[in-house]
Design brief:
The chain is of the alpha/beta class and about 290 residues long. It has eight helices and eight strands, in the order E-H-E-H-E-H-E-H-E-H-E-H-H-E-E-H. Strand 5, helix 5 and strand 6 form a beta-alpha-beta unit. Helix 1 crosses helix 7, helix 3 packs parallel to helix 4 and helix 4 runs parallel beside helix 5. The relative contact order is 0.14.
Length: about 290
């Protein structure tokens, strides 16, 4: 990947797992990277580790809880007070298979954290992203989704999975929502002629802490299987970094859904313009943006 000197990136959930590896590699390439996360101690520990490896690394931590809309607003306010440009936004943080619960604002946790919190974050940063891009050097939004989106469905009248709850189904639904958002955003940016692209990526099956909510007996077996068969966080970060940094995805070549370093087909639902527009409009209403 080319040097990223002078560029500024935000990576949500950048203190561990795939996010940490993304931050680490971006910092190595000269980017100024901001970790958005809930745990300040974990974030600062990640920064120390990166700076020990790369003395010139520019990495900082800013508090961000995607389960709180207020926290998202505060994060964006603090970022804009620094008067920095923003070239790359990696929406990486997420939860998986968590017991049924609600965010601070009453949304189902998978839907609220994986999708709605990132929707709001991206929306509030769009003006900065647009101004930071230019012809030949587009800004980029990278949404870390999953192949699990193939099993998801969007029920506009029950986005919070109130009628029936399954942790696995809720996760799949949230990952499909991310893809619909990413695709619709990219189309809007193209039509508006803005120097900004949006894409989604599947990092693959990666050995991270996302699986910690598995049923205990399964969790023990999973640890063994994961070490043998799953990708490492560094390997999982490869496609994310490709989507965020590669010159091959510049300008009109950006967008779409990426896995294993190449474009992948998604479900037909992802390209349903009525569903995209319906989810987009409903999300704006839920977030009080209309």
């Amino acid at each position: 990947m080319p040097r990223q000197d002078g560029k500024v990136a935000i990576v949500t959930g950048g203190a561990r797992g795939i996010g940490y590896e993304v931050v680490r590699h971006m910092a190595r390439l000269g980017a100024h990277v901001i970790i958005g996360g809930r745990n300040e101690q974990e974030g600062l520990a990640a920064i120390r580790k990166i700076c020990e490896e790369y003395k010139e690394a520019k990495v900082e931590f800013m508090k961000l809880d995607l389960a709180s809309l207020q926290s998202v607003h505060q994060f964006v306010q603090r970022f804009k007070e620094q008067d920095l440009q923003l070239n790359i936004l990696v929406n990486n943080a997420g939860v998986m298979l968590v017991p049924e619960g609600r965010t601070e604002d009453g949304f189902e946790l998978h839907f609220g954290v994986n999708y709605l919190g990132h929707f709001l974050l991206t929306w509030l940063l769009l003006d900065t992203l647009k101004k930071s891009g230019k012809c030949g050097h587009f800004s980029r939004v990278v949404n870390v989704s999953s192949s699990a989106h193939h099993l998801g469905e969007i029920r506009i009248n029950d986005l919070n999975s109130s009628k029936s709850y399954s942790a696995h189904a809720a996760y799949c639904h949230s990952k499909l929502a991310q893809l619909l958002f990413s695709s619709h955003l990219h189309q809007q940016l193209e039509h508006g002629g803005f120097p900004l692209s949006s894409c989604a990526v599947d990092p693959g099956i990666v050995d991270t802490a996302l699986y910690r909510h598995l049923w205990t007996p399964l969790c023990l077996a999973h640890r063994i299987i994961a070490r043998l068969l799953y990708k490492t966080p560094s390997e999982g970060a490869a496609t994310v970094l490709y989507a965020a940094l590669s010159p091959d995805l510049e300008g009109e070549y950006g967008g779409d859904f990426w896995a294993n370093g190449q474009r992948e087909m998604t479900t037909p639902t992802t390209f349903d313009p009525k569903l995209q527009l319906s989810l987009w409009g409903t999300s704006l209403q839920l977030l009080g943006l209309q």
